[in-house]
Amino acid sequence: MTHRRRRIVRALLTWTLALGLGTSATAAVHAGALRTGESPSTVRAAAADADCSGSVSVYGALADGRLTYSQIDPSTGNRLKTHIGPDLGFEPRALATLNFNTVLATDASGTLYRIDVKTNNLSLALMSAPTPIGTGWTHDKLVHDGHGHLYGTAGGVLLQYLVSQPKPAGSQHIGQRREIGGGFVLKALTSTGDDRLLANAADGRLLEYRIDDAGDWTGRQLVASGWSGFDKLVSPGGGLYYGVTSAGGMYWYQDLDPDDGSGSDIVYHTDDPVDPSGWTQTLLSAEPETADCVGRQYAYVLPRSAVPRSELDDPHHDYAAIDIQVPIGTPVYAVTRGTVGHIDGGFGNGVTLTDAGGVTYIYGHLDSRAVGAGTTVTPGQYLGESGNTGQSTGPHLHFEIRVGGVKHCPQRLLLALYDNTTPPAPSSLPTTGCSY
């Protein structure tokens, strides 16, 4: 077991023991449930960590009214800690994080409270009991965008408020109520940045909303299906999205370009959840805009557990390429951003991936192809499953790199990607010495 996996296992044990509310569901069950209704081409898994900095801070509320605080590493998706705080004295109905030590919450009667956090480092403690600062807050959801706007939904109506102080004392600091529009019947709602909202619908769509200075909004469908399994969504910005299932599993995703209005470049980490169970909070709210990510240029082409590192420097039997022995059905991932092509013949169900510089990567002998020819894919995107098709003497992935039609040895590049170090430029790779 690797150091990273041991750390995850220890974290999971700590998590389950701390809450005492974990479930017995497995990550595989959750991942399969999230894929219901999706076609293979929409299921993408990440084979490499994200290039992210900052922090992911998530406040929550348990059914008994206790406040919780969790911190997650934005690059690896590992939960770093969870603290359970005191009883708030009421069961929150909606929750919004203003900043690292100020949280807003409503109760069933519509009273709005300000919760002042004293510390969330080694434990979770409050400065004092929650302070009531308003009434009539009958919203079912509340989110803060990190830029002074508080959004809420009530009866399907989206409302916007201006928060003028980091610790608002009442209506003098939370005002300018504006009705954005109706029809916002959403399963979960979070903010991804300045006047930007992310939501999922009961039918599985992942949706984005952007609100302009005049209060007008535009909506986009990022993903057509597959997101109905999430009861809660939170985002710390940077294109990072976290979803929690009804079974208590938290999964994380990275939108490589959150400004493009498309979900086609969302990298799915369903094979490496934050936690497969244990998130039993009735509400969750992330501190806004605390994480920053950059798009990854390259990604490893297989799950890291598929083969040991020592298999990645093996020579190919005939020319500059590599044959990696993996069982039929092993996921394979896009090594970089590029355009997909299909190649058959001796490659069986083969896939080509051509990047912007004209470098072509070939995946041979797949059992199935999950992306259509002409599709643009991003690093780490799911391409299909390894197999034994075409001119193959046993289950394996044939991988090669062609620069200007010339074959280059891929071994050094694969080793660098496996090690999470900067890979060499494809053109710098040798053209001989990796075959026998």
UniProtKB/TrEMBL annotation:
CDD domains reported for this sequence? M23_peptidase
SUPFAM superfamilies for this protein = Duplicated hybrid motif (SSF51261), YVTN repeat-like/Quinoprotein amine dehydrogenase (SSF50969)
Signal peptide from the UniProt entry: 1-27
Q: GO terms for molecular function, please?
A: metalloendopeptidase activity
Signal: is it a keyword of this entry? yes
- Residues of the M23ase beta-sheet core domain: 321-406
Give the matching Pfam families: Peptidase_M23 (PF01551)
Alphabetized UniProt keyword annotations: Signal
According to its UniProt entry, this protein's organism is Streptomyces griseoviridis
Fetch the InterPro entries from UniProt: Cell_wall_metabolism_enzyme, Dup_hybrid_motif, M23ase_b-sheet_dom, Quino_amine_DH_bsu
- This chain belongs to the protein called M23ase beta-sheet core domain-containing protein
